[in-house]
Amino acid sequence: MIEQETTPRLLIVDDTPANLNLLEEILSKENYAVRALPSGKLALRAAFAKPPDLILLDIKMPNMDGYEVCTQLKADERTRDIPILFISALQEVDDKVRAFEVGGVDYISKPFQVEEVLARVRTHLQMRTLQQKLSTAKQQAENANHIKSVFLASVSNELRDPLNSIIGFAQVLASAEQLPADLRPPTQHIQSSGEHLLTLINNVLDLSKIESGEMEIVLDTVDVNALVQEITTIFAWQAEQKSLALSCHTSLQTYLYADPKRLRQVLLNLLSNAIKFTATGHVSVYADYQDGYLNLCVEDSGQGISTEQQQEIFKPFTQLNVDPYKNQGIGLGLSITRKIITHMNGDIGLNSDLGKGCRFQVKIPLEPANIPYSKGIEKLAVGDMQAISVINNYPLVWLAALEQAVSLGESEQITDLLAHYDNEEMTQLQAWANQYAYQRILKWIAQAHLNAEHSR
Description:
By secondary structure, the chain is an alpha/beta fold. It folds into 4 domains: 9-112, Rossmann fold; 146-211; 220-368, 2-Layer Sandwich (Heat Shock Protein 90); 396-454, no CATH class. 49% of the residues lie in helices and 15% in strands. It has 14 helices and 13 strands. The chain has helices at residues 17-28, 40-49, 66-75, 93-101, 114-175, 184-211, 224-234, 236-241, 260-276, 333-343, 396-408, 411-418, 424-434, 438-454, and strands at 9-13, 33-37, 54-58, 84-88, 106-109, 220-222, 245-250, 256-258, 282-290, 293-300, 347-352, 358-365, 367-368. The strands form 3 sheets. Strands 2-1-3-4-5 form a 5-stranded parallel sheet, with helices on both faces. β11 and β12 form a beta hairpin. The radius of gyration is 34 Å and the shape is elongated. The two termini are 38 Å apart.
């Protein structure tokens, strides 16, 4: 019998054959593809090999109870999302609470009520289908976003080379003494426009790298004091042009392991914004290192940002909607800054009130350079497979198929395989299969292998 992929696959686990028979009969009539297994050990083996859509799991079983089976299923990536409905005659509240604590989604009491069983199974299958559709939609959206980011990165790289050439030629022309006076302003305009476009392209490229997961954090020994002072000096001329008091306050007592390029980018963006959006007063930069965290702060006396806009400004292409700062830049700086900081496992916060300036605070976990930096060792679990021997004139392919069918609890497949041979052994194996004594069949296969080894 070939089952359609759309047929819901159920796995029933109960050490009582009568319960397995009853549940299998109830659910098979609803056109579910049902596998029934009599022990927790077999259930784990079957679920890992061929994950079902839903599991009905007995609690009271010998050797391995339902709680342990559920715990192991939830710990494995292949089966952790499968809904598990516990079935038990236990009525104590503590038993039900524990069932939910280990990962069960519902509880069916014995003796079974057909309508209740079907209703609960149907409900949780529908919920699983919706969750899978949501997961698929999410993955498709992420894939589309990745394709967009890769495209933007490719286009940005193609534009940078010719744009750098334009800027370079404009710089040469602007510095040439022979250039007529009336051509100097437009030449300078070409240069400044090119530099503006290059900044835009670099920002788009950075954003696309971050969103596609291609941005790397390259750690090196960094003198943060010197880095902060250097970047503050870069903006000294701009601050002087606007009559702003620009100050730098650093108190680090050690070098840090950090990515100097990304720290520089964060500070450049924050200081650039502070000076751009501050008309009068001051811009101050602070840096210190406490309890394993680098703390950076950029404070200004600008117009400030309203509470409503404080979260919006970290979104891509978002600009302040306040005169006279409308349409200044393209709104990528703070978005990139937050993403870089997040990528470094840090956080950025903003304290601001309209008319009272802004205070951007950055906190990044970094190791001091006097402590050796070491990456964690990744351990890989390696498994192996045992070959199945040919024994007692039973073909290798048949033995392998029987072991797989028994391990997965596929009763119809087991019956079909046993029907290939008409002898007492097959009659006994079929009797065990009818009683869900699958462990006995597996022991028969294992003993046959052992006999084959001894006969060599």
